[in-house]
Amino acid sequence: MMADDSESDHESDHPTSAARAAAERARDNSSRNKRLITGAAIGIGSAALVAALLYANRRRSDRS
Q1: Radius of gyration of the chain (CA)
Q2: CA 38 to CA 17: how far, in whole Å?
Q3: What does the pLDDT read at residue 19?
Q4: pLDDT tens track for 1-53
Q5: Residue 30 neighbours by CB under 8 Å, 6+ apart
Q6: Res 15: pLDDT
Q7: What is the DSSP letter of 8?
Q8: Euclidean distance between CA atoms 48 and 57, whole angstroms
Q9: How remote is the C-alpha of 58 from its chain's centroid?
C-alpha cells in the first residue's frame, strides 16, 4: 500500500518538473535567438560600414 502512495506522489511531481524543464528550454531558446539575431545584425552592420568606406575611398581617388 505504501508503494502506491509514493508512486502517486512521484507522478504528481512529474508534470511540474516537466513544465519547469519546458520553461527552461524556452528561456534558453529565447536567449539563443537573441544572440543569433544580434550577431547577424553586427555582421551586416560591419559589412555595410566596410563597403561605405571602400566606396568613399574609391570616389576620392577617382577625382584626383
Answers
A1: 28
A2: 32
A3: 85
A4: 455 555 455 555 567 888 888 888 888 888 889 999 999 999 999 999 999 99
A5: none
A6: 72
A7: H
A8: 14
A9: 38
Residue type, 31: S
Amino acid, single-letter form, for residue 48: A
pTM over 0.70, yes/no: no
Hunting for cell 566596410 — which residue is that? 50
DSSP letter string, 13-64:
HHHHHHHHHHHHHHHHHHHHHHHHHHHHHHHHHHHHHHHHHHHHHHHHHHH-
Total count of residues recorded for the chain: 64
- Whose cell is 577625382? That residue is 63
C-alpha cell belonging to residue 28 = 534558453
* Locus of grid cell 509514493: 6
pLDDT of residue 3: 52
